[in-house]
Design a protein that fits this description.
The chain has no helices and 7 strands. The protein is mainly β. Strand 2 and strand 3 form a beta hairpin.
Length: about 70
């Protein structure tokens, strides 16, 4: 199966969750996840907003995902 990385670039910032598991608050170093498709939820309580994104994590690679929560 393997692992890969997700480099999240979130404006202005967000708490990152996969399911109920909190992965951290951006900015973060690239997240190491199992290769495959993941749904991440980005939450910014100051803006009272959240957004779910689907990322495809490449085996032995890095994908960059940019999200603007102000849009």
């Amino acid at each position: 199966m393997g692992v890969g990385k997700v480099d999240l670039r979130v404006n202005p910032w967000a708490d990152v969750f996969e399911g109920k598991k909190r992965l951290g608050t951006t900015p973060l170093p690239p997240l190491e996840l199992a290769a495959g498709t993941h749904t991440l939820t980005l939450v910014n309580p100051e803006l009272k907003t959240s957004r779910s994104i689907t990322v495809k994590v490449p085996r032995n690679g890095t994908v960059t995902q940019r999200v603007d929560l102000l849009e």
